[in-house]
């Protein structure tokens, strides 16, 4: 595993083996915690993580690293976010149209959910009353642009 540079009495390979062991145990490691644990610089830990990533032992993320299984879940999420972007954009506009000032909104980051705290009856009433907003611009170049350009999630490319 990795290079054999020695720093503060421990070989890089020994440090890297311990890092892999921690990821297997905990699922992730943080750079600032590893620097304290091993008494080495941030750059040393970054080199270790880079080497371990080259060996497919982990996936580097901002501030640390995660195990390969976690990284694969993350990539699946990225793929899902790119599926059906136009439909998702339409749905998000619809959902936002149901929200009123004063509503309590719950954001659950680990589950990727946003919930508005409303009774089923109130939500059903809002759905029944909802209608798509009229375009703000109905003529000229901006109206043409709005009609022909795809969603921003796809780069806002003009479809002719």
Q: Can I get a quick summary?
A:
This protein has 160 residues and is an alpha+beta fold. The protein has seven helices and seven strands, in the order ββαβααββααββαα. Helix content is 52%, strand content 13%.
What is the H/E order? EEHEHHEEHHEEHH
Strand content bin: 5-15%
Strand order of the largest sheet: 3-5-4
Rg (CA only): 24 Å
| Low-pLDDT windows of residues | 2-7
Count helical runs: 7
Q: How many DSSP-defined strands?
A: 7
Structural write-up:
With 160 residues, this protein is an alpha+beta fold. It is 52% helix and 13% strand. It has seven helices and seven strands, in the order ββαβααββααββαα. It has helices at residues 12-26, 31-38, 42-54, 68-82, 85-97, 120-129, 140-148, and strands at 6-7, 10-11, 28-30, 59-61, 64-66, 105-108, 113-116. It has a three-stranded antiparallel sheet with strand order 3-5-4. Strands 1-2 form a two-stranded antiparallel sheet. Strands 6-7 form a two-stranded antiparallel ribbon. Strand 6 (105-108) and strand 7 form a beta hairpin. The longest helix is centred in the N-terminal third of the chain and has 15 residues, at 12-26. The radius of gyration is 24 Å and the shape is elongated. The model is unreliable at 2-7 (pLDDT under 50).
Give the tags:
single chain; 160 residues; alpha+beta; 52% helix; elongated; disordered N terminus
Task: Please write out the topology.
Elements: E1 6-7, E2 10-11, H1 12-26, E3 28-30, H2 31-38, H3 42-54, E4 59-61, E5 64-66, H4 68-82, H5 85-97, E6 105-108, E7 113-116, H6 120-129, H7 140-148
Antiparallel strand pairs: 1-2, 3-5, 4-5, 6-7
């Amino acid at each position: 595993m990795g290079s054999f540079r020695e720093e503060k009495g421990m070989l890089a390979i020994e440090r890297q083996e311990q890092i892999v062991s921690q990821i297997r145990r905990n699922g992730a490691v943080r750079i600032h915690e590893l620097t304290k644990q091993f008494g080495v610089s941030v750059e040393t830990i970054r080199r270790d993580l880079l080497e371990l990533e080259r060996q497919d032992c982990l996936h580097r993320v901002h501030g640390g690293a995660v195990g390969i299984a976690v990284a694969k879940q993350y990539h699946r999420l990225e793929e899902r976010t790119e599926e059906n972007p136009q439909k998702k954009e339409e749905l998000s506009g619809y959902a936002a149209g149901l929200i009123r000032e004063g509503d309590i909104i719950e954001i659950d980051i680990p589950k990727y959910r946003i919930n508005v705290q409303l009774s089923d009856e109130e939500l059903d009433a809002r759905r029944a009353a909802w209608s798509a907003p009229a375009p703000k611009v109905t003529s000229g170049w901006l109206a043409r642009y709005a009609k022909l350009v795809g969603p921003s999630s796809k780069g806002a490319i003009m479809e002719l």
